[in-house]
Amino acid sequence: MWREMSPARQVLFVGALIALLVPALADEAAPRLPKGLEAGGAGVVASVIDGDSLTLIDGRTVRMVGIQAPKLPKGRPNFAEWPLAREAQAVLSDLVRDRTVMLHFGGTRQDRYGRMLAQLARDDGLWVQGELLRRGLARVYTFPDNRAAAADMLALEREARAERRGLWADAFFAVRKPEEASRFVGEFELVEGKIVDGARRENAVFLNFGADWHTAFTLRLNSETLRLFRTDGIDPMALIGAVVRVRGYIRRDRERGIIDVTQVSRGYTPTRATFGGHRCDEVFGRHYPRSASLPRRRRMLQIRWCFS
pTM, whole model, 2 decimals? Predict the structure, then answer.
């Protein structure tokens, strides 16, 4: 039968086989909601606002907790649309619009705007946040009062980043080197590098990614953070020599870029291949600029340790 087909029909036949196989493969790889979350009802999605928020037909707005999709201006003056913002919005719409989603909670349930802060599972079991991360259409973006499923989300993000899916193929979302971090002051960025020096100054510890602390990208741990380190039995100075990846808003301190550390928690352990055999720590930085008028607990930062 195959030999009797013309080349064009052979191509069409192969295309048909692929079309049949792809849905099965996609379904097999579809992420499922992690355990440990608390069910909180369901609703039908009426509209999608952007790549990480939507409205239900009962009028509730849901901010999909734990992720940040590329941003749309949404009426903000002088705000440049991020790459892939429209694509993320369109994919989310395809995934959930007019479908029932189940809301699950692992922390604070509502923000100051009245939005529900929920992990979403579709009526067929698909974990919506996980799917967006898997496709490379969102980054992990957690808060101290909403860190449930962080390890699972980071694993999906790492997979997408390794495969350069979606936003990970765009230079706008590149993981920055410490020496270029100061160029991105005021922005939410991922920065990866080796801590080469550190110092204690009064009630703070500074971990520097370069020999000259005046210009080196730095993590600052205040007295509150240091108490958390002590409680966890961790000496922050022991991180000197470690390769870390940090995410959060960068602020300027004289000539250097800096991220303020305010919370620490133990995290996942990736495979050695994930980080090329390096000892690695995943660090989450301040998720809003320092000038943002927000409750302090929502401005706090978390560190997630990972050793390979």
Answer: 0.77
